[in-house]
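Narrative progress, year one. The postdoctoral researcher (J.K.) led the effort to move from monomer predictions toward full complexes, under supervision of the PI. The following entry was the first complex the group processed end to end, covering 1539 residues in total.
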Amino acid sequence: MVAKKHFFTVLTVLAVIITQMPAMGSAESKITHYSRFERIIKGTVTADDGSTLPGVSVKVKGASAVTVTDVNGRFSINLPDEGGTLIFSYVGFKTREVLVTTATVNVVLTSDSKELSQVVVIGYGTTRKSDLTGSVASVKADELKAVPATTFDQALQGRAAGVQVTQTSGKPGAETSIRIRGTSSINAGNEPLYVIDGMLVNSDGGDVSTGVNLGPRISPLSSINPSDIESIEILKDASSTAIYGSRGANGVVLITTKRGKAGAGSVTFESYYGLQQISNKLNVLNAAQYADFVNEAKLNANQTPVYVNPKNLGEGTNWQNELYRTAPMASYQLSFSGGDDKTKYNISGGYFTQDGIIVNSDFKRYSFRANLDRDLNSRLTVGNSITYSRVSSSGVLTNAGPIVPGVTTAALLFNPVLPVYNSGVNGGYTFENDRGKILGNPIADAKEYNSYGVVSRVLGNVYARYKIADGLEFKTTFGIDAFSDKENSFGPNFLKRTQASKGEASVGTVEGMTWLNENTLTYNKQINKDHAFNLLAGYTLQQFQNESLLAYAFDFPDSRTGYHNLGAALNPQKPVNNESRWSMISYLARANYTMMNKYLFTLTGRVDGSSKFAQGKQYGFFPSAAFAWRLSEEEFIKNIREISNLKLRASYGLIGNQSIAPYQSLALIGPYGQGVFNSGNGSEVYSGNEPLTYVNKNLKWESTRQLDLGIDASFFNDRVSLTADYYEKKTFDLLLATPIPTTTGFSSTLLNIGNIVNRGFDFDLRTVNTTGKFSWNSSINISINRNKITNLNSDTDIQLAGGSLLRVGQPIGTFYGYIFDGIFQTDAEAASSAVLKGQEATSSNPASRARAGDRKYRDVNNDHVIDEKDRTLLGSAQPKFTWGFGNNINYKNFGLSFFFQGSQGNKMANLNNLDLLNFTGQNNILAEAGLNRWTPANPSNKYPRALASGSLDAGVYSSAIVEDASYLRLKSLSLAYNFSSALLNKIKVKNLRLYVTASNLWTLTNYSGYDPEANTYGQSTTVVGIDSGGYPMAKTYIVGLNVGF
Amino acid sequence: MKIFSKYKLIIALLCVASCSLTACKKFLMEDPKNLVTETNYYKTSGDAISAVNSIYGYLNSTSTGTTAGVYHSSFWVAAGLASDELSNNQLASPNFDQLATFTYGPQNSTLQDIWSTHYKAITIANIAIARIPAIAMDETLKQRLLNEAHFLRGLLYFDLVRMFGSVPLVIVENDALKPSAASADAIYAQVLTDLTAAENLPASYTAGNGLGRATSGAAKAILAKVYLTRKDWAKCAAKAKEVINSNQYSLWDDYADVFKLSSRNGKEAIFSVGFGDGGGSISFWEVGQFNVRLLPSDLSVEGVQNAQGWQFPTLPLYNSYDQDDRRRSTTFITEIHNTDGTTKTIRPYIQKYWDRVAEPAGNGSANDYPVIRYADVLLMCAEASNELGNSADAYKYINMVRKRARFNGTTYLSILPDYSSLTKDEFRAAVLQERRWEFVAEGQRWFDLARTGTLEKLVPIAKPGVVPSAKNYLFPIPQTERDVNPNLPQNAGY
């Protein structure tokens, strides 16, 4: 209850503050005194490249008068005395002091060394990049805008070293999976912590999903409009993440939205319209080829062929063409920004709409944001960031796995001989694949199985900042992240998929919120020239809660009311509801000490208390220390003109992970002990209750010790700048489901056991290749990570879905199966070789005996039988490295940018190929494989013979389906035109930019599936690199317009 | 513009930032409303009853894991196989083959089952014993429930200490994750404490109202067996006499009536474990607990379903009976009735748990597992009396059991004459033999041979070539358990 009390106090304080706030002042400065000596000084401030600078702060030295330049860089200020000095300051430029000698003062500001003065957001504060001791990657709005992204996390791909972003799906708004410096957990989460304007938000799709919607989950982050984002900082090392304690182990992503700046108001309208297409289609057999293939499979099994004259069937139905479409997308955003020296505002509204490339799937977002800051007096500042968004989406069933395939899989496998529609059947669609593989008509599934979800989210906080004394400041923030999600789905009774349920409908809701109260005290102190201190202490409270309700029903004789009338069902099911809640209390502190501007020290610590852990183990302490040495400030380097900056960094610290579900340390009681007391011919039934899990009174945090050694260097006046880091993350006390002695009454529980190590390098190189009229900048980043499980507390492998396993000494995402060893070329070879059980020459079923044209598997243990013991490691989903390469070229008013991105050395288990390389004729297969299948005349060593029955190797998980998924992709290519200000001034427009962008335009890969980035299991911590019927990625072309008034 | 004085503000902020430790504790307390947790359970008499019921519930079978409870299909099968009683006929079940041939090791999965099912039930008993005292409820009922839990825990530890010797003695809730092993003596001491407490249980219950729960008679009967195993003859005889003199129990006149469904928890049953689905009100799998594994598959021609005959008696066991011994015809089946009226002779299988009349399809399993029945008490009393030199009692009680075996349903035959004038050793052999005939497939034989030190002598007679050794007087501690608990020493010889 203490928490509640605190909010009320905070709210009262803020309410008082807000009610007493005066009406917002005008943009002009206030003049408090007027004496006979006062003069009005006017002038214009320009940058060194000649452009005028709005929003520059102009201050009279030694007095309180201050103003800012207007939209044209002009200012006007009253000077109280003769002479006097004006101070001009503006972020990104060197502050200039000018002695006033004339009534007009025109000033040119020279840009500061961009690298060093760049302000970087860190946890609970900001710092200049030059003062940074930790490893922080920064991505600015311009870079995010290069790709028309539905959610900002997609735009991060390839932009920062050490950050691996995978799109789990091409479904509009779907989750992405982000790994910062590798995978460090098995049972707890691996996604980073997201902090939006100081608000620690909930990014777990599971909390914001009822499970009703078809296909992959919508990302909770999709409610953030990417256009509102000013910058994204990614905290990577322990020094920068330890301030987030138990939630920092997977890295922290800080998102800062745009705030108003002093200066005349500006109105910006941004808009684009685009078209998306499937990035590539897979070539499968057409009707004539398929019929021929099926006939041969039947003949090889001594069965009667099915199709009389295959050649006459022609192309047949191209199911992919029926399913995929060219889909439009559009974005509109209007924002107002500005302010004076006391009040600043940035408000915006946006509308985004996107149709999916699969029929009947779409995404829409309405978003509104208001960021306000107001100085109430010289000491007290209040403000807020608030956003409301409403996201709605329709989904189709994809990523469904191999047993009941979704529409993307069915579109590949469905018999091409059959037509889409069949008016003679209830519903009007061809009902099912008629060749053996259980598949529903993908077009019917996509168009008629409806699924619709709406997520509303309010994310916002209010703050008050009070300057207690010189350098001492208190800040309190109260924020909430409240969401509600409603999901509906309906499948009419005429689909193959609903054959058993006779029509099905679900309606689910989730309602939840997290609130956060943070209180921090900062103190800045400079003691003479050589000692600078920055101290931070804070106390925070956070609580999360959600409730869900799911109702569903089967057997709808009438499909017309869909999910709108669950009561129409003849077979209603039990409703399910659930709730979850957790809370955290934290104490945090940080001390920065800069000595002689050369030696930088940072000490950080956070104590986190979390309700998720056992009593007595709830608190954890997460400290870190960092040291940086600005070598370039030393005399012996200062003279080397080529070196403009050189800094060495080292940090070490402890961070935690607590991403497990609540209530795992509690003893839950439930029924299993039941039975009867028999007596004569009767019986008395009894039931009992007992704890359902082993109560681990010691359940605590996962912990990670991270070492980071880094270098920041720039040369030739910042023309070349490099950041490089080596890191080593050792995670211990892994939360792992572990076998325990059965003397406890249980055989396994979640224990803090197990270790994982991630080691790697992050490189980020930026160059200014040319300047002047023709300017060209490049950036390249490379991430290298090596992941290894070093302890599982057991020598036994843990088998996972999709043929992956966890084994000590191997990375997470290791594939396991048989080695495909070519094709038997003769019956004699097949008869004398080791073969799968049932394929032996002595097998009772002659049809299943191995023959020429069947697949060979390697007898790894040389026991002349191919069985489970011959399975072996088949590679890993972990890339050797991932990289991004961007270029911006400007010539006169034209701007060209292109961005390549890629991943090298990662394997993918293409589970689609279990079917697409299945030669039984039960379903369609890849054209390349089908047309080159083994026949006596075409002795392929890659593809087996067609064989309708008796084939035992269909579905065998082998190296034939584990593929190299390295790729190189032209992620974006953009051409822009900026209209000249001379022209724009005439029509009272400040700036106007037109651009065309293409994304995912070109990909180089050997991967045989739709996309080498597929990741069917989404954010799963351990099952990665699996492609199983995902929603394919789109290629996008857009034209856009930005206009500012 | 001054809104607050500096100090007022600082005071307000300090209020915001302060957090007393107790309040923090409460803020971090998990209290899920949609789940029943131990913090909001064990509050009412209903909770107390259900806490104890749950222990009983793990004696039969469970709806998770292997579905096997303590007395479902591992304990009594192992006790029969690891002796001269049963052979294994189930293909591809190396665990049973190893038990039958004394080639088992720490990896044997049946032994792991026995171990873990016993400790599962013990864990629940520990919780009941820890939690019930604090519940405000009727004091008489409270004491009864606690004593039922004590009885069951004593019984379970008695099984464990006999089979495995030195094992962890976990008697409190949430004991060490990796407990050390306690000495056999310490475990026996706990068994005696628990069973002695259970002597305060009611003498009986009425049908449908608790009949089948542990009674004082059950506690005394098991105590007698503990003393018998410990060779404390006087105490064994005394406890057995208490049971006999309570007049709660008597033998069925006809041995064939002992295993009738209508005899469940009847006059001869002292403590039994009920099986069956309560007429469909229990959803989990119970079918065929005895009959599936014991009845011969040949019975399918008689309409019996799912008879697998996974374990059958050794031929020397079958041949050791007098051919008119009522126990032989009740215990074994050797003839199949074909539909054409002819009969087919087969090797003996065990049919005693099959109530042909009540359960003609034979695939049900509503019969009880007899943990201890009155005939056992009589034979224990006879055995102890012989050791004590009280031959009057010795002959009296052994001959009561022997007399019943002469009854063929209508008349007493002139077979199996009453014992008299045996030497002490001869009497020992006679009582062991009588137990063998009486308790086939009742989970007694390994314990009887181990207790009397006759494994090496008797097993090779029934199973030529199978030679137990000294190590076989204890089973090995399961390896899976030792893998996760390094504090457990292995028994000698494994």
